[in-house]
Amino acid sequence: MTKEKIPSTPAIRVLRKNGVNFTFRPYKYEDRGGTRVASKSLECDEHQTVKTLVMEDERKSPLILLMHGDMHASTKTLARLIKAKSVTPCKPETAQKHTGYMVGGTSPFGTKKDMPIYMEESIADLPTILINAGRRGLLVEISPAELVRILDPVPVRVGI
Asked: In terms of Cα–Cα distance, which of 69, 41, 56, 55 is closest to 131?
């Protein structure tokens, strides 16, 4: 019986370097399936599956927003909180340029460019989260406290 080889992505290297206890949670990736497909495949609550959204303000300055998989983000509220005129999702090629990850495999860990990171504050209240490990079809299960320790995200309330 052969075991599937898990790649070493920049995200996984950051987690290992920081001594994070994590569990690989691979699943069959579906284009445009998002957290709905991942959580269904892994038989977990979509609310604990965290998506990494790469956004930009009106000056094209990039930022990351971590959001519950079953929620949407109010970009107007986020813009107001960060004192920007507007915040919009980056185009996939722009997001990849900033992060080094393909859309569908974007992780907040090990990004090419340092960017401010915002997190829906209620994510910190979950017992565990599943978050992308830097490859389509590969999540890691970690404690949200570890995410906060490594990334030091700014807590926000922008989920709708």
From this structure: 69
